[in-house]
Design goal:
This protein has about 425 residues and is an alpha/beta fold. The chain folds into two domains: about 300 residues, Metal-dependent hydrolases (TIM Barrel, Alpha-Beta Barrel), CATH 3.20.20.140; about 80 residues, uronate isomerase, domain 2, chain A (Orthogonal Bundle), CATH 1.10.2020. About 50% of the residues lie in helices and about 10% in strands. The strands form two sheets. Strands 4, 5, 6, 7, 8 and 9 form a six-stranded mixed β-sheet that branches. The protein has a three-stranded parallel β-sheet with strand order 1-2-3. Helix 1 packs antiparallel against helix 17 and helix 16 crosses helix 17.
């Protein structure tokens, strides 16, 4: 056996790992393996103001806004009257000075500051603001990607956002590390309010989907796909989502999205379980979670065996059902611990459950980052948890009579961190 805790030992990938060295060996492999972050809300540096970064953006992230009102008497309406710097100052004082930052969202900010050698016990934001003000976006983003060990970033791209589409027409896909994902929410969930935007682009569409609306929407999507070269199409769906039913969303999925994805060999990513604006006063921070019915997912997978689906669910209670569905349908790929599930205790549970039911045939995490520096803490925290879950699985395998080699561990981690996604989306790298 090989013990990788002993630096004098030759580290041959073909020799089995000593059981006593499993935990540390797996942790090092996980730490060293680059990851494809397959779902973010980030952009390549050339997208300029669409990118969010720096201390004020980190502190005014909607997770922290929601947390603020549990530690402050300030009312939401008063908060929104403040400018961004004042909001950030308030959140820093309330959650980091007057209270100990022990929540996942606050610890994330601490981890980012520590990564840059900044004072995590500072009484104000003077030092942090001076540091970020000195950074140039392109070089800073390179540093962040290196610290997070992220090789590729998949963006979220809205085909009806004029500012974003203008940048795409000007060469938005030039950075090979950044890939597009075509977000379908405006079309599938907000058609009544957004159809006129498609119409204004010169496509003959109707609010009630009559006439040539579906063919014209296919023509529109073909145009956007040629421009963006997305790796997949995606939509965020409520816990009330049902398929098939009489809704426009259901019809558009059946008659538009599934045929386009099949023809283009693009996966369709379903993110199911959000309950929008349970507290509208909090704006983006006011969304909640609901348990979804998984029968619709099974129906989609069964009726469309030649389509591939990337799937994540927001409710913890839906996770086991998703794993079971993935065991039954080879065209389902579970991914990530989304939004309210991106907490260490829940990530640990979900990752262990998936390993037990699916082996290494899933994508364990995505950052869902909206602020660029969040890549640092989200991947640092997730790597720790994934490493522990994998090490535990290998320990159980040893107990059952099967040793593992370094090469096997490296293969499993590469598969989970990049290989599964690259194969599912036909991503050509290099």
């Amino acid at each position: 056996m090989i013990n990788l805790d002993n630096s004098s030992t030759v580290q041959s990938p073909d020799l089995v790992i000593d059981p006593g060295a499993l935990s540390s060996t797996v942790a090092r492999v996980v730490e060293a393996t680059p990851v494809i972050d397959m779902h973010t809300h980030l952009f390549a540096p050339r997208f300029g103001s669409l990118n969010l970064w720096g201390i004020d953006e980190l502190l005014t992230y909607h997770y922290l806004i929601a947390e603020l009102f549990r530690s402050s008497d300030l009312q939401p309406a008063q908060f929104w009257e403040l400018d961004q710097k004042a909001r950030a100052d308030l959140i820093w004082e309330s959650l980091f000075v007057l209270n100990t930052p022990i929540s996942e969202a606050t610890r994330g900010v601490v981890a980012v500051l520590a990564a840059f050698g900044l004072d995590t016990n500072a009484k104000d934001l003077t030092q942090a603001r001076e540091f970020f003000a000195q950074q140039r976006a392109a070089e800073h983003f390179d540093v962040v990607l290196n610290l997070a060990n992220v090789s590729d970033v998949v963006m979220t791209n809205d085909p009806l956002d004029d500012a974003e589409m203008r940048l795409w027409r000007e060469g938005g896909g030039a950075d090979r590390r950044f890939h597009s994902a075509l977000r379908m929410d405006a079309i599938l969930n907000e058609w009544d309010a957004k159809y006129s935007l498609v119409e204004n682009l010169g496509f003959a569409v109707a609010k009630d989907l009559s006439g040539r609306t579906i063919p014209e929407l296919r023509r529109f999507l073909d145009h956007v796909i040629e421009l963006l070269k997305p790796l997949y199409l995606a939509v965020s769906l409520p816990d009330t989502f049902r398929y098939p039913d009489e809704s426009r969303c259901s019809r558009l999925i059946r008659d538009l999205v599934l045929p386009v994805c099949h023809e283009r060999q693009l996966p369709f990513a379903l993110m199911i379980g959000v309950r929008r604006q349970v507290n509208p006063a909090l704006r983006l921070a006011g969304d909640g979670v609901g348990r979804a019915g998984m029968e619709s997912l099974n129906r989609l997978a069964a009726e469309n065996p030649d389509n591939k689906f990337l799937v994540t669910v927001l409710s913890r209670e839906n996770q086991h059902e998703l794993c079971v569905s993935a065991r039954k349908f080879g065209n389902l790929m579970p991914f990530g611990c989304w939004w309210f599930l991106n907490n260490p205790s829940i990530i640990s549970e979900i990752t262990r459950e998936r390993i037990e039911l699916l082996g290494a045939s899933f994508i364990p995490q995505h950052s869902d980052a909206r602020v660029f520096e969040q890549l640092i803490y989200k991947w640092t925290h997730s790597r720790r948890i994934i490493a522990r879950a994998l090490a535990e699985a290998y320990e159980q395998l040893y107990a059952d009579g099967r040793a593992v080699t370094l090469a096997e561990v490296q293969r499993d981690v590469r598969r989970m961190f990049s290989g599964n996604f690259a194969a599912w989306t036909n991503l050509q790298r290099g």
